[in-house]
Amino acid sequence: MTMQRNPGAAKPDLNRAVWRKSTHSGSDIDCVEVADLGEVIAVRDSKNPSGPHLMFTSREWTAFLSGVRGGEFDLA
């Protein structure tokens, strides 16, 4: 899989993002947070909320979640 960038694409407005994290995370700040921006899904590190964000299309995010649920990324 190769990463692709689309420099001509409009950047999503992260100011309107509603960030969520798993209820299993507790109150720690060592979490991954996710925001559904409609056209893309944004992912960030809760320790560095103003740092870089990963952006995924809905199709990419759905494929990732399917892999997680199916044990595709389990280490054991």
TrEMBL record:
Residues 1-25 are annotated as: Disordered. InterPro entries: DUF397. Residues 17-69 form the DUF397 domain. This is DUF397 domain-containing protein. It comes from the Bacteria. It holds the Pfam family DUF397.
